[in-house]
Amino acid sequence: MPTRVITITSGKGGVGKTTTTANLGVALASLGKRVVVIDTDIGLRNLDVVMGLQNRIIYDIVDLVEGRCRLRQALIRDRANAELYLLPAAQSRDKSAVSPADMVRVCEQLRGECDFVLIDSPAGIELGFRNAVAAADEFILVTTPDTSSVQDVDRVLGILEAEGRHILGLVINRVHPQLVRRGEMMSPEQVLRTLSIALLGVIPETEEVLVANSKGAPIAYEANSPAGRAYNQMARRLLGERVPFSPLVNGDQNFWDRLRFWRRG
């Protein structure tokens, strides 16, 4: 299987791109796939913290592109899964330290060495975004169910579609079913109607995710939690399986009855 290079992006900060990247990486690696996750948020990295690898960083992506280390020296193996690796961002440099051409070269080195490269895009649509999208074959968009986040994703979607890029689907993060039922939060169906995009996953609003991130132990390792189950199901969909959407809370299946199986387009 050729290496799939996928950028996780949204345009807006704080919607869960880094959490999605880490958890999809964990879920895919748990399915036996070799995965490299790349943090492109130079100066503001936190993918290493979410994965609990911040104390293992010796070299970063800037060291790699500037020739101070080899690729294998910059990659950090995950503590819990030998098939998962992190290429961290630099903490003390700015985004201009890496160019889109640099990102293409880094990802070319990874092609054939792993099954998936997941690129965590920084907020905004400036240079950091251009770095994150330069080498990608496919894209996952992340939003929360609020108007401003959906508008930002729509703008990024327009940019990517104008460039002929392949959009895999949408992750709707921090969904609170009770607020949706009361009409106080956009429903997944409303989000999908606005964006006209396939649905890849729906992640519930839960303290479990915040606690897992703070502990550096992604929730995807907890396959019995609603959020952990959702990330693991997303990984299976990426591999081409037809996986129905599970209820976010017990007894809530009717809320999802009209959500279809996700299919790769």
Describe the structure.
Helix 1 crosses helix 11 and helix 5 runs parallel beside helix 6. This protein has 265 residues and is α/β, with parallel strands linked by helices. Helices cover 37% and strands 17% of the residues. The two termini are 18 Å apart. The chain is globular. Strands 3-4-2-5-1-6-7-8 form an eight-stranded mixed β-sheet, with helices on both faces.
Q: How large a portion of the residues is in β-strands, by DSSP E? A: 15-25%
Helical/strand content category: alpha/beta
Number of H- or I-type helical stretches: 11
Low-confidence sequence ranges: 249-255, 260-265
Give the strand line-up of the largest sheet: 3-4-2-5-1-6-7-8
Question: How far is the N terminus from the C terminus?
Answer: 18 Å
The helix fraction, in percent, is 25-40%
If you compute it from the alpha carbons, what radius of gyration comes out, rounded to the nearest whole angstrom? 17 Å
Give the H and E element order.
EHEHHHEEHEHEHEHHEHH
How would you characterize the largest beta sheet?
8 strands, mixed
Coarse shape: globular
Mean pLDDT: 89
Write down how many β-strands occur, each being a DSSP E stretch of 2 or more residues: 8
